[in-house]
Write a structure and sequence with these properties.
single chain; 293 residues; 2 domains; four-stranded parallel β-sheet; 8 strands; 50% helix; 10% strand; globular
Length: 293
C-alpha cells in the first residue's frame, strides 16, 4: 500500500534525523511513500485553531485535497499534524454545510476537498497484528535487555471521540510495537501526562510537568533506559527541559529521549552511526553501550 507522506514543519526543518529514521523503517518494511508537493503547515493544532477556526480548517482541508488529488491516504510522522489533519477530515465529513463553506474558500485558489482522504499516524500502521508479525520476523537486533518508558502525548489520543487512535486512558499501540522489538515497557503513574510544550507562555508549568515525569522515571525500581515518544514537540520538550531542570534543581535527570522510529530502525538493522542518537541534549551513552555490548 502507498501513502502520501505528510512531514509537517518541525521534523524536516529542525529534526531531519527523525525523518531519516522513519524513512529507513518504511524502506525496510516496504511501505511505499509518495511526496506531497505544495503542502503547507498542517496547520499547528493549538494556536491557530484558537485564533481563527475557519483559517485553520481551510489550510487543513487544502492539505487533505492535495492527497485526495494524488488518490492516496495520508501518513503522518508527527502527532500534531495527525491531530489537525484527522480532526479537519472528521469534522468536514460530519458537516456538509461547513464543507461547502470551506470549499468556497478553496475554490479561490483552485482546490476542492470532497472528504475521501483518510489520515494515519505511522504507529497505527505498525501496531496492526500483521505488521507486528512482520516486524518480529525480520528483527535483526532484538531489544531484549531494554526497559523503555512510553510517552503518548496529548495530540495522539485526545479528543478520543475524534482521534479514535487507541484507548484514551489505557493506550497500548506504542507499547506493543516496542514489545514486538523485544523490549520491556514500563508502567508508571505520569505516563499520560502532557509534556508541557504548549505552556510556553508560562514556562514553569511545562518544566514542572517534565520534572514530575522524569523524576518518577529516575526513581522507579527498574532502571529506565529511555523514554520513547512519537511527537517532535514532546521529544524535544523532554530532552531539552530535562537538561535545564537538572542544572536548576541539582537533580541528576539523565534519561535519554528517543523518537520511536529511531529505536525501530536500530532493531531492524540500521547501523547506530546512521541514526544520530547523540544529536540531543541528554546523550544516550548508557543506552548505546547497552545496545553494543
Amino acid at each position: 500500500m502507498e501513502y502520501a507522506l505528510f512531514l509537517g514543519c518541525t521534523i524536516p526543518l529542525k529534526l531531519p534525523h527523525l525523518e531519516k529514521a522513519f524513512r529507513d523503517v518504511a524502506s525496510i518494511l516496504n511501505v511505499k511513500l509518495k511526496e506531497m508537493e505544495g503542502v503547507s503547515c498542517c496547520p499547528e493544532p493549538v494556536s491557530l485553531q484558537s485564533l481563527n477556526i475557519d483559517t485553520w480548517m481551510t489550510l487543513g482541508a487544502r492539505n487533505l485535497a492535495i492527497a485526495e488529488k494524488m488518490g492516496l491516504n495520508i501518513m503522518t510522522i508527527c502527532s500534531g499534524c495527525y491531530e489537525t489533519l484527522k480532526t479537519v477530515s472528521v469534522l468536514l465529513k460530519e458537516d456538509e454545510e461547513y464543507l461547502a463553506k470551506i470549499n468556497e474558500i478553496l475554490k479561490k485558489i483552485n482546490y476542492k476537498y470532497t472528504g475521501k482522504t483518510k489520515v494515519f499516524h505511522f504507529v497505527e500502521l505498525f501496531s496492526q497484528p500483521e505488521w507486528l508479525e512482520k516486524i518480529k520476523n525480520i528483527l535483526v537486533k532484538p531489544l531484549d535487555d531494554l526497559n523503555l518508558a512510553v510517552h503518548y502525548g496529548c495530540h495522539l489520543i485526545r479528543p478520543s471521540k475524534i482521534m479514535q487512535f487507541d484507548h484514551p486512558e489505557k493506550p497500548e499501540k506504542i507499547d506493543i510495537i516496542l514489545q514486538a522489538l523485544g523490549a520491556k515497557t514500563i508502567e508508571f503513574a505520569t505516563k499520560l501526562e502532557c509534556c508541557g510544550y504548549c505552556a510556553r507562555l508560562q514556562d514553569e508549568i511545562g518544566e514542572k510537568l517534565v520534572e514530575d515525569k522524569m523524576t518518577e522515571l529516575c526513581e522507579l525500581e527498574e532502571e529506565v533506559d529511555a523514554l520513547i515518544a512519537v511527537c517532535p514537540a514532546c521529544t524535544t520538550q523532554y530532552d531539552r527541559k530535562e537538561k535545564i531542570i537538572s542544572r536548576k534543581s541539582g537533580k541528576d535527570l539523565d534519561i535519554p529521549v528517543l523518537y520511536l522510529a529511531e529505536i525501530m530502525a536500530y532493531a531492524l538493522g540500521v547501523d547506530l552511526q546512521d541514526l544520530s542518537l547523540k544529536n540531543r541534549s541528554v546523550k544516550p551513552y548508557k543506552l548505546i553501550n547497552k545496545l553494543t555490548t
